[in-house]
Amino acid sequence: MGLMHAEQAYLFRHALLRDAAYGLQLPTARAALHGLALEVIETIAGGPAPDVEISDTGEYQSASHPADDFAAELAGHAAGALVAGPEPGLERRRLGYMQRAAHQAEHAYRNEEAADLLLGAAALPGCPEITRAACLRRASSALLRTGVLGRAAEALQRALSHAAGAPVLRTIVLADLAGVLSALGRPDESETMHARALELARSIGDDHCLGSVLHSYGYLRAEAGRMVEARTMQEQAREAFCRAGNRRGEAGTISALSVLLHLTGETQQARELARRALDMEVQFGTRRGECIARANLAIMLGEAGQETEAAALNAQALAIARELGDRGTQSALLGNLAVVEQNTGNLTRAETLYRQALAAAQESGARRSEGHLLCDLATLLGTTSSVAESEATFRLALQVTREVRDRRMEGSALGGLADLLAQTGRAGEAVQLFREALVMLEEIGEARFCHVHRCHYALCLLALGRKDEARQTWAEAWPKLHELGAVHDITRLTPRMRQACGNAGIPPLDEARNPPLDEPADSPSPQASRGV
User: Fold this and answer.
1) Among 387, 312, 320, 390, CA closest to 351
2) pLDDT tens-digit profile of 352-411?
3) CA 118 – CA 142 distance, rounded (Å)
4) The three-state (H, E, C) secondary structure of 402-443, written as one string
5) Tens digits of per-residue pLDDT, 58-97?
6) Are 75 and 120 in contact (CB under 8 A)?
7) CA atoms within a 13 Å half-sphere pointing along the CA-CB vector of 87
8) What residues are paired with 54 via a beta bridge?
9) Which tens digit of pLDDT belongs to each residue from 406-457?
10) What is the separation of C-alpha 454 from the centre of its chain, rounded to a whole number of angstroms?
11) Which DSSP state fits 54?
12) Mean pLDDT of 19-34
């Protein structure tokens, strides 16, 4: 070991002497010293800080105080002074300083510290029930940012038990818990809680509360593949936030609506809304909202072939997520960056990012995100790795997406697996999977996945010799991909289609005019193929 520097040696000895001197004091004397330190620091800060105020939704809303800079230290001294015996005024000051210290930690994005302080405050014997519920809700938010979904759910479940006397707070805690349970892959519990939260929100008549619940519930509807309901809920949430004068809430619903429009094929309007949401989030300074808005817009632009802007937006979003210490969002953004790398041909880098994002999702217990990432990784592995590994990953993706009831990604995984089978000489086996995938995606109203897998299905039919049916199926999907501006899908599919047509001895499927083809008498008609 190297020699200790003089300054380090002094600090080390000073700490030892301080701790030794402190340990020699009797407990009552130590308590008195803590009480003295508390009063001295409060005097320097202009007096004790007032009790912390919280909103109906459990948000911290107290004015700043000079003692805030010493809040953690003051809470510690109050705790030390209480060793001498209970004292209501001292207990109240300890609670207030713990909340103020947590607020400081939250604003500095020290999420673990904030969670510990808030959980500690909620555990204090003299903490009022509503304050306890509010601290637990804030602690859950900090825990979510650290990527610990299970602990966040536990904090919210405890908050529910203390929020009986605060109907607005209880309703929002129910909606928060429903969202966390959905991310954990517990859809039945999530649905029950969301429905209950919406019922309570409507009965309360508070527009901010109603908007928050509708916004959260809308996400769940989209995840379940119920796009029309999801859009209705987000539009209603937006109206409620507007009535409440909550512009930040309105920005969040606009961002959510942009994603829904994108998924259902209204790409131009989706991009316009996404840019509007981003402008609003930047204007209001909501960093997490800005992060999400940048990520959403990046996905849309990336699919349209605007890789440079998409990559820049993703990088900016990831920088914000890191600034916020938001590990859960970082995981999702790594997956988004992997898509950009994949689209630009950097397949090794893309695989590394997918695996990093997948590991983070699995570590945090985010089963829904895990299903998405498995599906994306399986698609990449079909071009970079063994067929067996790609197939195994697709089947695992199917298992997870079915478990969490994510019908959109289940449909995508079914279509991806079917395409892999068709490309590896198992076209007959792939047909039924394609049919299941297309029925599911059509029911949902998902545009891009549906049209991409319909093109894959056309190539599968071509491999089976069903040329007229293949041409009809291709003709139904190919123009739609152009309407969506799905540049990467078109670029990837075109050479595959031309090679398949060359192998079959027919003109390319995208030619405007094609000669009649001889088909077996028992071949399904084009009309029948449209029902797949």
Assistant:
1) 390
2) 999 999 999 999 999 999 999 999 999 999 988 789 999 999 999 999 999 999 999 999
3) 9
4) HHCCCHHHHHHHHHHHHHHHHHCCCHHHHHHHHHHHHHHHHH
5) 889 999 999 999 999 999 999 888 887 778 889 999 999 9
6) no
7) 14
8) 60
9) 999 999 999 999 999 999 999 999 999 999 999 999 999 999 999 999 999 9
10) 29
11) B
12) 65
Report how far residue 321's alpha carbon sits from residue 330's, in angstroms, rounded to the nearest whole number: 6
Q: What is the distance between the alpha carbons of residues 151 and 52, in angstroms, rounded to a whole number?
A: 25
Q: Which of 442, 444, 473 is nearest to 458 (CA)?
A: 473
CA torsion 128-133-134-136 (nearest 10°) is 120
Cα distances (Å, whole numbers) of residue 38 to 30, 33, 43, 96, 102:
12, 9, 9, 13, 18
Question: What are the angstrom distances between the C-alpha of 506 and each of 74, 150, 509?
Answer: 81, 56, 8
Using an 8 Å Cβ cutoff, are 100 and 62 in contact?
Answer: yes
Decide if 411 contacts 440 (C-beta within 8 A).
Answer: yes
**Phi, psi of 334, deg, nearest 5:** -60, -40
- Residue located via tokens 């808030």: 118
Place of tokens 């039945």: 188
What is the distance between the alpha carbons of residues 137 and 173, in angstroms, rounded to a whole number? Answer: 7
Contact 223, 259 (CB under 8 A): no
Q: For residue 103, give the nearest of 144, 158, 147, 65 by alpha carbon.
A: 65
Overall pTM surpassing 0.85 (yes/no): no
Q: Are 187 and 405 in contact (CB under 8 A)?
A: yes
Compute how many other C-beta atoms are within 10 angstroms of the C-beta atom of residue 482.
13
